[in-house]
Amino acid sequence: MYTIEYHGRNYQCRADETILDAMLRQGVDFPFSCRKGSCHACVHVAEKGRLSADAQKGLDDHKKGEGCFLPCLCRPVDDMVIVPRRKTGASHTAPAAPASDHRFRSPDPEMWQALGEGSVLSAVLTDFYTRVYNDQRLAPFFHGVTRQRAIEKQFLFMRQKFTGEKVYFGDRPRNAHHWMVISNELFDYRESIMVDCLRRHGLPEHLVERWRDLENSFRSDIVKDEPWKRRIGDIELPVAGFDEITLDVGALCDSCGQEIDAGVTARYHLRLGTLYCPDCMDAAVA
Ligand code: FES
User: In terms of domains, do 208 and 144 share one?
Assistant: First the structure.
């Protein structure tokens, strides 16, 4: 067990967990997004303590020289003092792509027909999410969501767009992606996989372009360099944090794997839904 000092408090981190996991387990409101070393939303500086070999993977030499590291990759090998990296002023968000010419239309009977009134769309999305869930850069954004659930949600969203029927009741794109730190480059990468799937399933090229226009109309709602708060109307909801729940049925702790009995009050992470037993949620703060 190692001690990690952060904002003047000590937190305990096991040798087999990342510093990010340890912070989340102990209720710290800590920035993160992909949890896999891609987005760099979690970058911090190690003021004291040695870093493991993986901790700086993918950072440029300048950041490495500053002592920056990625808490989502870093398993401790030493007691540490860590601090947030100072922002340098300007936003690091890549410039948004030029606004689309909005050639997409909604509803779009021609598109819906070309998508087999749902049958081709279903095949496209199954193909697409199979690739996404096997992709190291994209899969982390679907942590805790089954592939089938992702397909069904996207199917209903697209069906509503193309038919005008009110069948999608999920979040709008801005809220659905509020915590995901996604660059223009990552947005384009995801889109290239989708375009490939559309072509493989025979969508005519002018409809592939129209689909791209539709997706690009959401780019400014999705691309960002730090998580946004979730909004419902004018109300901003917390982007992260914890709540407590008294369990109706037993469950397993996502940190230590021990059983949590029915009737016990446990803590869960609002964004991730991970559940922590009383030992794991308290043990840490020294
Ligand atoms: Fe650590 Fe994305 S790089 S959360």
Answer: yes
**Which atom of ligand 1 is the closest one to the Cα of 38?**
3
The SS3 assignment for 6 reads: strand
> What band does 195 get if pLDDT is binned at 50, 70 and 90?
very high
pLDDT at residue 90 above 50? no
Distance from Cα 41 to the centre of ligand 1, integer Å: 5
Beta carbon of 35 within 6 Å of any ligand 1 atom: yes
* Residue bearing the bigger pLDDT, 41 or 234: 41
> CA-CA distance, 42 to 51, in Å (whole number)?
15
pTM: 0.63
In the chain, the amino acid numbered 98 is P
Answer yes or no: is 113 within a domain: yes
Regarding whether 69 and 6 lie in a shared domain, the answer is yes
Looking only at the bridges linking them, the beta strands covering 2-6 and 80-84 are parallel
